[in-house]
Amino acid sequence: MSTNIPLLEAFKQTKYQLVGHGNRNLQVLKEAFEHMDGEQESDMYGTGNLIEEFQSKMAAFLGKESAVFFPSGTMAQQIALRIWCDRKELKKVAYHPLCHLEIHEEDGIKELHNIEPILLADKNRVIELEDIVGMTEDVSCILLELPQREIGGQLPSYETLEAISVYCREKGIKLHLDGARLYEITPYYQKTAAEICSLFDSVYVSFYKGIGGVAGAILAGERDFTEESRVWKKRHGGDLISLYPYIVSADYYFNKRSQNMAEYYEGSKELATLFNECEGVSTLPLEPVSNMFHVHFQLSKETIESILVKIYEETGIGFTHYVRETGEESCYYEVSIGDRYATIPKENLKIAFQKLSEKMKEEVSQ
Amino acid sequence: MSTNIPLLEAFKQTKYQLVGHGNRNLQVLKEAFEHMDGEQESDMYGTGNLIEEFQSKMAAFLGKESAVFFPSGTMAQQIALRIWCDRKELKKVAYHPLCHLEIHEEDGIKELHNIEPILLADKNRVIELEDIVGMTEDVSCILLELPQREIGGQLPSYETLEAISVYCREKGIKLHLDGARLYEITPYYQKTAAEICSLFDSVYVSFYKGIGGVAGAILAGERDFTEESRVWKKRHGGDLISLYPYIVSADYYFNKRSQNMAEYYEGSKELATLFNECEGVSTLPLEPVSNMFHVHFQLSKETIESILVKIYEETGIGFTHYVRETGEESCYYEVSIGDRYATIPKENLKIAFQKLSEKMKEEVSQ
Lengths: 366, 366
Fold this sequence. Notes:
- Chains A, B: Pfam families: Beta_elim_lyase (PF01212).
- Chains A, B: Belongs to the threonine aldolase family.
- Chains A, B: Its cofactor is pyridoxal 5'-phosphate.
- Chains A, B: Keywords: Pyridoxal phosphate.
- Chains A, B: This is Threonine aldolase family protein.
- The structure is a homodimer.
- Chain A is of the alpha/beta class.
- Chain A has 2 domains: 7-24 and 260-364, Alpha-Beta Complex (Aspartate Aminotransferase, domain 1), CATH 3.90.1150; 43-241, Type I PLP-dependent aspartate aminotransferase-like (Major domain) (Aspartate Aminotransferase, domain 2, 3-Layer(aba) Sandwich).
- Chain A contains 15 helices and 13 strands.
- In chain A, the strands form 3 sheets. Chain A has a 7-stranded mixed beta sheet, sandwiched between helices. Chain A has a 4-stranded antiparallel beta sheet with strand order 9-10-13-12, covered by helices on one side. A two-stranded parallel sheet of chain A has the order 1-11.
- In chain A, helix 8 links the parallel strand 5 and strand 6 (174-179).
- In chain A, helix 4 packs across helix 11 (223-236).
- Chain A is globular.
- Chain A starts with 6 loop residues before the first helix and ends with a helix.
């Protein structure tokens, strides 16, 4: 089985796509600015109505006293951990082995801030209270990522979160929320963002995952914390003269999509079921707890790519633009449900999964 | 003498303004994107045609092997100095006492990178070869800011630059150019940007001063240097999923304005002459060497504000939106000539300066 068309190219030619909101192209910005008044003044180095109003809005949404807009979550989270370390005069934090800071930031937390991370839990599961209680070293801060993206977006139970929060407050350990996908977990927990954030001392949220904006992040907490974060934002080179391109688009897509998270979540569960009905395919988690999950195949990357390209060509439905090898005979990709999923006619979806099921059965049984 | 209208408000109501290109409002972005194809793909974490083509264009313009786009100069320059320090295993650099890193970045270079700066020259003049030859300590890198903004945008002679470059190469000291206003000095030196940059190992340029873009910076040098800078860019939280809002606008306004620097420079010299003809007013430098200079008044901030508000109301010409106190009976503001200056009818300009001259004479002689 072979094909000459790469998966990415085949994906781009499909009529429908299972994942995401749409293409990440310049139209995303243009749409957000279309109805904005050109006379509106830019923010200026973190000041001005445009940035201040959005920060206040997000602080209220997250139930925190104050919020600061950052160009990136990488910057916001390193700074949050640095502040908590400085307060306790202890440059140690704890987080999951697959934490964004540990695997996607070129060790910025260590190289720029000299902070030593302690890795909690096995990398294949979420952090539980026992992992924290069992720590042999003191730390200034624990970071929880909800959902844990690199293992398909898994979540601890809400009771576990509450217990961790109580424990950390007792022990004088600050609790920071990596809420890159915070909006996306509110339907599963049946809690508001503010309720979830109340368990944490500081929280970061993103505007280009579930929200689908251009880029940008918010860091929220008590005012003395966010004021200190502004100083570090300048040190990091993040206090740009104008952040409005990100703020305007963050606000626009927040208004457009923050109410849709339950719909994305339902789509995610429905889609995971379809995958799990196919031989040699399983989702992680088996039942999603947000708009995201991972799809694992028990066949080689090359075989799966061939199968997918054929399905794309035969049905016009694109599943993914990539798959990543996990072994000689296994691979996976990540699903994030957005606006696109609901636009796919159910009949077409059914046909695409019939084909996937048939082709998988054929290949697995070989 | 008193007025009830603040200077900023009066300035905003004027028909003409002596400084800048225009208001920093959302229209700056909208104009840049108006003719862009919405289907064009975003850059993705530093890759993609949109960012790569602009980086290549700027590398060629600056005569360097490679260039990397950064969200800010603060980030780009700290990283440049860090790389040079790591190469020499010596965390010491030298720069002017009024260097941006020393006074505008909350000590990021020290707090994030543990780099110790040695301050060269008296703060009221530019760095000369003798200051460098006279250094008693070795350093990894010397940063020169051309023009030296905080003293009105002064420049050393080109021969001095050449001599410093030769000396640093002999001594194994890297030379970095803070070229936030590099385009603006090419008419005075009668050199291309690439010719000036050839004296330096690394260079940063900005896109929102003379160019008038939204924000953003380029760091350029040899490829191994810029590749290393990408790693630090990620550590700093500057490797955003999408930097295109800044890149598209940087490119648009670079194309629109980089050819206008000689015109701005001529305007600057003309305007400085008009100021220097008024009693109690002088410019620094006396004859500008770029599109910028400082205007110093030998009267209190309050008196000057009153005088300016009256002139704005009487002539419709706005000089500045602020003045800064330097003593009880002295104050100043910064001039940057941009697109606006050429739009002012010469007759109106003449009247405004006649009024300034009269009012200054009246007040100085009191």
